[in-house]
Specification:
The chain has two domains: about 40 residues; about 160 residues, Uracil-DNA glycosylase-like domain (Uracil-DNA Glycosylase, subunit E, 3-Layer(aba) Sandwich). Strands 1-3-2-4-6-5 form a six-stranded mixed sheet, with helices on both faces. It is globular and about 60 Å long. The longest helix has 28 residues. The protein has ten helices and six strands, in the order H-H-H-E-E-H-H-E-H-E-H-H-E-E-H-H. The chain is about 50% helix and about 10% strand. The structure holds iron/sulfur cluster.
């Protein structure tokens, strides 16, 4: 029995063959054929773009619903001191997700991840591999700021991590970059130092994960930028 999908596929094949025929006629200098419009028309590409848009819209809606669920979260003590929940931002259909540790002061005030000095450095790192922030998704292990930017406590990580897991389940990235010790150790369930974990891909739920130094650490230790660049070059190669 011919299904709707079969019909759609056959139709696109016919349109595609007709387009090739018209291009062939153009090549023979037939007059009256709209050259510019024809060369820009690609039904298969248009169908793919439309499928991607639908998928992105679906993911955005699911992330929006999750954010709504969490906005009043008081599951751990950080809920009482935060100004804003920092859920995550970026492309809901991203192939690459950056995961940091926790919001700092600027992030807490704005409700967005990586917007302070470390965030500006992260933006430059993303740009250096040929992408914009809008191409990727950025989130943290903890969605609320620890007081005075202290390290996250194990119980806070354990309580908040399920939200990040849900975000990653929705986005389904091809690649993850874990920024800093807490992100890498939490996702990989590994207690090795970041200096030992970085420099090679690991697997998180079947997704390639590259641990590297946190941008805030890089601001204090600029000599480590070269190692981050090496890690990011591997990410860039894999992304392509
Ligand atoms: S850090 Fe996570 S678990 Fe704790 S209150 Fe914030 S959203 Fe809830």
């Amino acid at each position: 029995m011919t299904t709707r999908e079969d019909f759609k596929r056959d139709f696109l094949e016919i349109v595609s063959s007709f387009k090739e025929y018209l291009l062939y006629l153009q090549g023979l200098n037939f007059e009256g054929l709209p050259r510019e419009k024809l060369s820009g028309f690609n039904p298969a590409k248009q169908q793919l773009a439309s499928a991607e848009t639908t998928e992105a819209e679906d993911k955005a809606a699911r992330l929006g619903a999750l954010r709504k669920q969490m906005v009043e979260c008081q599951h751990c003590q950080l809920g009482s001191s935060r100004k804003n929940l920092v859920f995550g931002t970026g492309n809901p259909n991203a192939r690459l997700v950056f995961v940091g540790e926790a919001p700092g002061r600027d992030e807490d005030l704005q409700g967005k991840p990586f917007v302070g000095k470390a965030g500006q450095l992260l933006t430059r790192i993303i740009n250096a591999i040929g992408l914009d922030r809008e191409d990727v998704y950025i989130a943290n292990i903890l969605k609320c700021r620890p007081p005075e930017n202290r390290n996250p406590l194990p119980e806070e990580i354990a309580t908040c991590e399920p939200f990040l897991i849900k975000q990653l389940e929705v986005i389904k990235p091809k690649l993850i970059v874990a920024l800093g010790t807490f992100a890498a150790q939490t996702l990989l369930k590994n207690t090795d130092a970041i200096s030992r974990l970085r420099g090679r891909f690991h697997l998180y739920q079947g997704i390639k994960l590259m641990p590297t130094y946190h941008p805030a650490y890089l601001l204090r230790n600029p000599q480590k930028k070269r190692e981050v660049w090496e890690d990011m070059q591997m990410v860039q190669k894999e992304y392509q």
